[in-house]
Structures are given as structure tokens and as C-alpha cells.
Design goal:
The complex is a heterodimer. The radius of gyration of chain A is 26 Å and the shape is globular. Chain A contains 20 helices and 19 strands. Chain A has a domain of 245 residues: Beta-lactamase. In chain A, helix 8 runs antiparallel to helix 20, helix 12 packs across helix 14 and helix 14 packs across helix 16. In chain A, 39% of the residues lie in helices and 19% in strands. Chain B is mainly α. Helices cover 64% and strands 2% of the residues of chain B. Chain B contains 17 helices and four strands. Chain B has a two-stranded antiparallel ribbon. In chain B, strands 3-4 form a two-stranded antiparallel sheet. In chain B, helix 1 runs antiparallel to helix 2 and helix 8 packs antiparallel against helix 9. The termini of chain B are close together. Classes of the chains: A alpha+beta, B mainly alpha. At the A-B interface, helix 1, helix 2, helix 3 and helix 10 of A face helix 8, helix 12, helix 13 and helix 14 of B.
Chain lengths: 485, 485
């Protein structure tokens, strides 16, 4: 028996030998690799007390380092914090970095190769290390306007961009938060604040899963733009095609019937043109297109607009990928997916990029938030140029869809977005959440003949009337502000 | 058999010196932790340190009175580990959190219970008469978390908690002890039977099928815990406990082979059938892929953050209070070893692991020294359980094996775990007392005799039959000293 006890002890010692090995590996042998990992925020935070570069909007810093305490020379400070929180993110000692603070950390912290000469200079002059500043493309007036257009307590996002360059002029969402509360050097206050902030209803401090770049929402009828593009691209349909428009679409073998949109005038006809179907946002014509073309065609067109794809190297911010189901759907599932329901999910930025592609003759530009990168002595280090990301449709198809989207605003259900003396193209969407409430969308651009601005608005969890009031009319205000009307 | 020291020494003074050292480590750590927050030596600190010191000294006094030959190293080791745990939990407390004081309260309760066990039980051999009661108690304890009304429901994917008023408790921790008592009692009574029968295949003698009963029971209990409580760690722990005990009882490696085959088979099937097991394994193998890292349930973020923390600690650590262990989820419970790795470095973790190694080695030493089969089995089982638990937890944290939800004994925040492990320490101390004390060949006093029928309590034992019975039926008699198995 004692021999067996000794053997058991040896087994236990063997397990502990493995532990010693594993701990040694993690803490010494493999430590450098772990420290270099992109997810490792600890390494980034080692420069916590240095003078970081500023994040600048419209010539004024929205995030900058200000003199801190004795133990930590510099402290991060955010101006108009709630307005820009979704883009700047926060820079925290204990909770890490998010948003631009994370995406541009190398430059802001001054450790980027682009700043090598500056670093050498600082070394000789004995100056404190100082990071580069990041100037954003945002327009402070539009940003403020967009933010105020979302009522307090309402969850929603607005993206405003220039479809020809991909530059983002405004990107806001509510609920927002004050990053100063998390960036404080008082660890106790910081911990208390983050607990409090996380209790704000509907908030998520992580910009990659919430807000314009991260929230994956059912797009509803704005997805019909994808169906239309797929239809025209297939060659089976043209601008004069007559589409079936039954009040309900039955499916063989099941009880479910896909109803037409009840809010417009769809019920007045059982055949519809593209223009009418888009104007009144009828469901059954697009469901029948999707079933006719097949899931693959819709999925491919969605990918051409950016679903499931990345957005290029100029956005910098982390973003969620929008999805169209790739596993085989039955007809009912495909019909529901074609109208942006079921498992179709898109971020507000994705819908804005799709709209911009139509506005820009079918060519999607890389979305861009960075106007310039400046060294500590204000020299321009880098100025991103507009670059095409992908071709979403041919220019003819884009022109045709623009014409129909213009009629949606001039004659259809997005009339609220109309701006006097300007041709506005738009499309609304109402995605049912199954709770009686909807995600209400507007996406569009203006002027239709020479697009300067693309606007995407989504209000989450609203009833039909509130949704209608908060989308198209607000888009009008943004169009007017950008176009100075 | 180890030669028995002709004149046993109590060595209580050595224990006192080591105890002072252990208290200095724990309390010193607690002071360091507070330095950074300008509250190193506030009244709270003195109050907490005073309580811990008083409890440790009280324990020491009880040993002087009741178990003066108990191993002098065990208590200081455990007080040292518990003190370090208290300091780290206190350090990780955010504002408004009071896990540190809660842990201290539980430490005091657990020590009081362990003292009571030593005081009232007097001799571990008495436990043997509770063999089948222990089995029943284990069954009740394991079923409790699944009973509606008492169950605290599914917490973090596992149903192992019960509600006691406002507190929660993990009865499985206590079941670890009662199961060990049952196995020890059952195996010490039946080992001859299991030993004699069996078929030899090659060099390995396999047991008869009917003797597999307890093995099947243990296997079913483990699989039951895995399926119904969704707790992989506890499942492995129970089965490992049983395997080592049956191996020690029979000295047959065939049991271990059958056991490992059963365990691997069960685990393999479980990983195919139950998503929680599969997720654990996926999170272990593919920890560094983005989908696994970001998965909301069963993702690898926790383990990866823990690895980053340990890598950051490197060889010597950041120093207590200087790292960022709060970036790791569950930093004060499941991942507390990572917190120590970050702040105390490889050296600190090695020291802690060595403390565990010494602790279970002293337990095995008690098993070798004690003269009754029941005590040998119990001490081996409990010591191996400590070793296995450390292996499963630290191996999980260092990504040696999949991470499971076991607690690190004495370090991790959690009252049930503290209580159970302190009771284990009480039992090991009692067994080591009989192991190291003067050879006592007298059987237990009449009335305490485990095999005495309790149906004649009022009658005085018959002088003619009592010695004969104890010589014939009591395996507690010094069989080991003569048989040398």
C-alpha cells in the first residue's frame, strides 16, 4: 500500500512538473510573443503617462493630453465627450483602449515608424516623447446636428458621408457616454464610473459591437436596393419589368404567408413596376425577384455592396461585418431575407456605404475618417487620398436605381426627406423586431444628379409613427445643413 | 515502511515560528497592496490582520492541546496561502466591492469549523463508521444544486450553486470530502475481496466485473456532475480522487487503466454531445482565433487575457498593486493565479506552486506514516485532490489543458471552497498526528469502536468478547506494520 502511495505522490509531482513548465513557458519563453499580440492592451498602456497626440476635429482637439499629477505626467482629456465618444473611444489605465485611441495608438503614442526621426530628435534634446496628432474628416457642425437629431433616451445612429470621397462627415449614436469618466487616473473613481456607465440602458462601450460601426441591425426594406441591383444585374429584369405584387405571398407546404407593406399604397395594384414597388416599399415583388434569381445571386450582390467584407484600410476603427445568410434557405426564408428581415444584419455604416456606391455611379469608396496625420511640429506626415474600394454595380444600374430612389422621395413614402429645389434620392426601411416595435431606417443622398452627401439614419425600437418622424424629416435637415440650403 | 522515530517530537514550536513567517507574508502582502492607494495602514488593515493572526494562533493552540504531534508545516503553509489570497482579493476589489472582507469572514468561519472538527472528532478513524452515511450525504449534496427552490440556477453556465438566504454555496466542494470518506471506508473494508479475485491478462491482473461496482458508481457520479451540473472540473476531480484511492487500496495499475479509459471515453462522448464541453476544448485549442476570442459564452478572452497578464509579469512581476490584473475576467477567483503571475512574476508563482507541492507532500507523508488503512486512503485521497485541483486550475490558466471552473485552493475568492479545504486541512492534521505520534496499538475505546453494533448501547461491553472482536474485525489494528504490502 505504501508503495502505491509513493507512486501516487510521484504522479502528483509529475503534474506539478508540468505546471512549472507551463508557467515558465507563459511567463518567460513565450512572453515576448504574447506581449506582441495585437489584443494585448497591457503593452499599449505602458506609455500611459506620456504626452499623447491629440485627436482633432475642425481644428480643435476633441481628445488631448493635459498635464496630470506628479506620479503621472499627462492625463487624457476629452472635449464634447458624448458627441465624439463613439469615435475617439477612451484611453484608460485599467480598461484599455478603444476607438481611435486604440486604432491610431502607434501614431498617437509616438511609437510609429513614421515618427522615427522625431523620436531621435527628442532623444538628443531631452524632450518628453510626444505623439502625432490625428485630424479627422468629421464636420463638427454636422456631427452636432446629427447627435441632437437623436432624442435623448432613443437608441439610434446616424452616418453622414461624402459618397465621392468616402470621407465621413458625421457619425453618431445614442446612448453615448463621457470617456473622461473612464480616462481618469483615480482608479477607484474609474471603476465606479465604468460600473455606472455600463448600466445606462442599451449602452455598449465597445464601438466594434455597437453604434454605427458595430451594431448589427435588421436592415428591413433598405435592403431592397440590393434586390433591385441583383435583378438589373442578372439581365432578366430591366427598367420596364412588371413585377407580381400580390397582397400576400404563399409558400407551398407551410401556413406562413409573406404580407405586403401595410403602410403605403401597395394594396392598390397586383402588378407593379420597380418604381412603384420601391416608392411604396412593397414586399412581394422583391420576394419574388429573390426566389426567381436564387439565394446565390442576392448574396453575391450583397457582398458587392460590402456585406461580409472589410471596408478597406482607411477607416481604422474596428467594425462589425454585415451578414446575409449563406446557409441554404427555403423559399419563405429567402423571401424574408430579401426584405431585410430574418437573419440579414447590417451596420448603419454598411447601409451608408451601399447608398454611397449607388450615388457614386456604382463605385464604393473606402470609408475614411482620417484627414491628416501631423507630427508634433504640425508637419503633415500622411494625408489619405480617396481610394475606390470595390465596384458594386455598373454605372447604368446605379443611375437607374438613383432615378427610382429619387421618385421614392418625390412621390413615394420618403417624402419627408424632400429638400426644396434639390433632387433627393432615398429609401426607407421598417424592420420588425417581433415585439411590435421596429428599427426605422432612412438612407439616401443628394443632390441626385451630383451627389455631395449620403445620409443614413436608423432609430431602434420605435413604433411606426415615431420612426417615420425621426428618419426622413431628420435626413432633410442634414441634407439642408450640408448643402447650405 | 518508513522507520518510526523512537521518540516522536511534537515540533509545535517550529510550527509557531513558521506560522509567524506565514502571517508576515500574508499581512505584508496586504500592506503592499494598500500602499498604492494611500490606505496601507488604516484601521481596516489592522483589524483584518489582527483577526487573521488571532485565528491562526487559536488554531495553533488547539493543535497543542488536541493534536500535538500533527505535522508542523501544514498549518503555516495554508495560513500563508490563505493570507496571500486575501491580499490579492483585497487588491482586486473595485470601489463598492467587498470581496476581500467577505473572504476574510469565510476564512474565519472555515478555520473555526476546522478547529471544531479537530476538537470534537479527536480521531479520524471514527469517520470510518460514517462510510455509507457519507455516501448518502454526498448524493444529497450533489443533487441539491439541481433542486428547484434551493438551486441558485445556472450561474456562468454551471448549476453548482445553492441559495442559503442571501448567500450562495457550492455543496460540491463539501462532497469532495464526504466522497473521500466513503471511498476510504468502503475500500479499506473491501480491498481484500477486490484484491483476491480477478483475471490475469499478460502482466496486468484485471478485476472481476462484479468488483467494478464502486468504479462504475464513481464514474456515474462524475458523468452525472458533467451532464447535470455542467461542471467539467469537478467531474475530473471526483474521478481522479476515486482512481487514486482505488489504486492505493489495491496497488493494481489495472484499475487506473480502466479508469482512464472510462474517463477519456466519457469525456470524448461528452465533448461530442454537450456544447459546454466542446466549447471549453475549442476555447483551449483555438484560443487565439478572433471568433473564439469574441464568443460571448465559452470564449477564450478570459484565458487569453490571463496569459497576457502573466507574460506582462515576466520573471519578477510588476510588484503587488502595480500590474493590471483587473483586465482579466474573474481575476479574483478562477484566474487568481494569473493575477499572481502578473504581479509577483514567475518567481512568485513558483513559490506559490511550491507551497502547494509541500502541502500535498506533507499530506502524502501523513498517509505513509499512519498505521490504519482507512487513514492512509483518506490522507492520500485528500492530498491528491489538492494536487489535482491545483493542476487542473493552473494548467487551465496557463493553457496546458482546457480551462475549467475549479477554484485554486485557499487563494481564490469563494466561501465554499475555503470551508472545504480548511476541513481537509483539519483532517490531514489529525491523520498526521496519529502518523507522527507515539505508536498506539490499542484499539479505539469501547463505544468508539467503528464495528460495534449500536443496538446494545445501554449494555456494558462484555470483557470476554470485546478484545477478541477488535482483533478479528478491526482493520484499524496495525495490520500495515506487519503486512508490508
Amino acid at each position: 500500500m505504501n508503495q502505491a502511495i509513493r507512486n501516487s505522490w510521484i504522479a502528483a509531482i509529475a503534474m506539478f512538473a508540468l505546471i512549472f513548465g507551463a508557467v515558465s513557458y507563459v511567463q518567460v519563453v513565450g512572453a515576448d510573443e504574447l506581449k506582441a499580440n495585437a489584443w494585448n492592451k497591457r503593452t499599449l498602456l505602458q506609455n500611459y503617462c506620456n504626452d499623447r497626440g491629440a485627436i482633432i476635429v475642425g481644428g480643435k482637439p476633441v481628445a488631448q493630453s493635459v498635464p496630470g499629477s506628479d506620479s503621472c505626467q499627462y492625463q487624457r482629456s476629452y472635449a464634447q465627450p458624448e458627441l465624439y465618444a463613439g469615435i475617439t473611444g477612451y484611453f484608460s489605465k485599467n480598461y484599455g483602449l478603444t476607438g481611435m485611441e486604440l486604432a491610431m495608438n502607434e501614431q498617437l503614442a509616438g511609437s510609429s515608424d513614421q515618427l522615427f526621426l522625431d523620436r531621435v530628435g527628442q532623444l538628443f534634446l531631452g524632450n518628453q516623447p510626444k505623439g502625432a496628432s490625428v485630424e479627422l474628416t468629421l464636420d463638427p457642425k454636422i456631427q452636432k446636428l446629427a447627435y441632437d437629431l437623436i432624442p435623448d433616451g432613443q437608441r439610434g445612429s446616424i452616418v453622414v458621408s461624402n459618397p465621392k470621397t468616402g470621407a465621413i462627415l458625421a457619425m453618431v449614436s445614442k446612448p453615448s457616454y463621457d470617456p473622461n469618466l473612464i480616462a481618469t487616473q483615480d482608479a477607484d473613481a474609474e471603476a465606479a464610473n465604468i460600473t455606472k456607465l455600463n448600466k445606462i440602458p442599451g449602452i455598449n462601450l465597445n464601438q466594434s459591437v455597437s453604434g454605427p460601426t458595430g451594431a448589427l441591425l435588421a436592415p428591413g426594406s433598405v435592403f431592397k436596393i440590393v434586390d433591385t441591383a441583383a435583378a438589373l444585374n442578372s439581365g432578366k429584369y430591366n427598367k420596364d419589368s412588371v413585377l407580381p405584387n400580390p397582397a400576400e405571398m404563399p409558400f407551398p407546404g407551410i401556413q406562413y404567408k409573406l404580407p405586403n407593406y401595410a403602410g403605403g399604397n401597395c394594396y392598390t395594384r397586383d402588378k407593379a413596376s420597380f418604381a412603384f414597388a420601391l416608392q411604396q416599399s412593397c414586399n412581394t415583388p422583391f420576394a419574388s425577384i429573390a426566389i426567381d434569381l436564387g439565394q446565390k445571386a442576392i448574396e453575391e450582390q450583397a457582398a458587392k455592396f460590402g456585406f461580409g467584407e472589410t471596408f478597406g484600410d482607411q477607416l481604422k476603427l474596428e467594425m462589425a461585418k454585415s451578414t446575409f445568410p449563406s446557409e441554404p434557405l427555403d423559399d419563405a426564408g429567402l423571401a424574408q431575407s430579401a426584405i431585410g428581415q430574418r437573419d440579414v444584419r447590417a451596420t448603419p455604416l454598411q447601409i451608408n456605404m451601399m447608398t454611397s456606391a449607388i450615388a457614386n455611379g456604382g463605385v464604393q469608396m473606402k470609408p475614411n475618417l482620417i484627414k491628416a496625420l501631423r507630427s508634433p511640429d504640425l508637419r503633415i506626415l500622411n494625408e489619405p487620398k480617396p481610394e475606390a474600394l470595390r465596384t458594386s454595380t455598373s454605372s447604368e444600374i446605379a443611375r437607374q436605381i438613383t432615378e427610382w430612389m429619387t421618385s421614392v422621395v418625390s412621390e413615394g413614402i420618403a417624402r419627408g426627406a424632400a429638400v426644396p429645389n434639390v433632387e433627393v434620392a432615398g429609401k426607407t426601411g421598417t424592420a420588425e423586431l417581433g415585439t411590435g416595435l421596429n428599427n426605422s431606417w432612412f438612407t439616401g443622398f443628394a443632390p441626385a444628379n451630383d451627389p455631395q452627401v449620403a445620409v443614413t439614419i436608423v432609430m431602434q425600437g420605435v413604433d411606426i409613427t415615431t420612426g417615420a418622424n425621426l428618419t426622413s424629416p431628420n435626413a432633410k435637415k442634414i441634407f439642408e445643413a450640408v448643402l447650405n440650403k | 515502511m518508513t522507520p518510526i522515530d523512537p521518540t516522536p517530537k511534537p515540533r509545535r514550536n517550529a510550527e509557531l515560528v513558521l506560522l509567524v513567517l506565514a502571517l508576515a507574508v500574508g499581512i505584508g502582502a496586504n500592506a503592499l497592496v494598500g500602499v498604492d492607494r494611500q490606505k496601507a495602514f488604516d484601521t481596516d488593515f489592522w483589524f483584518q490582520s489582527g483577526l487573521l493572526t488571532a485565528a491562526a494562533l487559536a488554531f495553533h493552540l488547539i493543535l497543542r492541546l488536541r493534536a500535538k504531534y500533527a505535522d508542523p508545516v501544514i498549518l503555516p503553509l495554508v495560513v500563508g496561502l490563505n493570507g496571500l489570497g486575501l491580499a490579492m482579493i483585497h487588491r482586486l476589489d473595485r470601489v463598492g466591492e467587498d470581496t476581500g472582507n467577505n473572504q476574510l469572514r469565510w476564512t474565519l468561519v472555515a478555520m473555526a469549523v476546522a478547529i471544531a472538527v479537530i476538537w470534537f472528532l479527536k480521531d479520524h478513524r471514527i469517520l470510518r463508521r460514517f462510510t455509507y452515511i457519507s455516501l448518502a450525504v454526498s448524493a444529497v449534496l450533489l443533487i441539491l444544486p439541481l433542486v428547484p427552490g434551493i438551486s441558485a440556477g445556472e450561474v456562468l453556465g454551471a448549476s453548482v450553486w445553492i441559495k442559503l438566504g442571501s448567500m450562495t454555496f457550492q455543496p460540491g466542494e463539501i462532497a469532495k470530502i464526504t466522497l473521500a470518506i466513503f471511498f476510504a471506508g468502503y475500500l479499506s473494508s473491501n480491498r481484500d475481496l477486490i484484491l483476491l479475485a480477478g483475471r490475469k491478462i499478460g502482466p496486468v491482473q484485471f478485476p472481476r466485473f462484479k468488483d467494478m461496482g464502486p468504479m462504475i458508481t464513481a464514474w456515474l457520479v462524475s458523468i452525472g456532475v458533467l451532464i447535470f451540473q455542467r461542471d467539467l472540473g469537478t467531474s475530473i476531480l471526483f474521478f481522479g480522487l476515486f482512481l487514486v484511492m482505488i489504486y492505493v487500496a489495491t496497488s493494481r495499475i489495472s484499475w487506473v487503466i480502466i479508469g482512464v479509459v472510462l474517463m477519456v471515453g466519457g469525456g470524448f462522448v461528452a465533448s461530442k454531445v454537450f456544447s459546454h464541453v466542446a466549447l471549453r476544448i475549442d476555447g483551449w485549442l483555438n484560443a487565439f482565433t478572433p471568433e473564439v476570442y469574441d464568443r460571448e459564452f465559452g470564449g477564450s478572452r478570459q484565458i487569453v487575457e490571463g496569459l497576457f497578464g502573466m507574460a506582462n509579469g515576466g520573471l519578477v512581476g510588476t510588484g503587488l498593486g502595480q500590474g493590471r490584473p483587473n483586465l482579466v475576467p474573474f481575476a479574483n477567483s478562477d484566474m487568481i493565479v494569473a493575477s499572481f503571475g502578473e504581479e509577483l512574476g514567475l518567481i512568485g508563482v513558483f513559490a506559490i506552486v511550491l507551497m502547494y507541492l509541500l502541502l500535498f507532500t506533507r499530506g502524502f507523508r501523513a498517509a505513509l506514516g499512519t498505521r490504519d488503512a482507512f487513514g492512509k486512503l483518506l490522507a492520500t485521497g485528500l492530498s491528491f485532490a489538492i494536487a489535482l485541483q491545483c493542476f487542473v486550475v493552473i494548467g487551465g490558466v496557463t493553457r496546458l489543458i482546457p480551462l475549467t471552473g475549479l477554484t485554486t485552493p485557499f487563494l481564490a475568492a469563494g466561501g465554499s471552497s475555503l470551508l472545504a479545504n480548511w476541513i481537509i486541512v483539519g483532517l490531514l492534521l489529525m491523520i498526521s498526528h496519529t502518523a507522527r505520534g507515539p505508536v498506539d496499538t490499542t484499539p479505539l475505546p469501547p463505544g468508539q469502536e467503528p464495528d460495534l453494533k449500536s443496538d446494545t448501547p445501554a449494555m456494558p461491553p462484555k470483557p470476554a468478547t470485546a478484545p477478541a472482536r477488535s482483533a478479528r474485525t478491526s482493520p484499524d489494528a496495525p495490520t500495515e506494520a506487519v503486512k508490508h504490502l
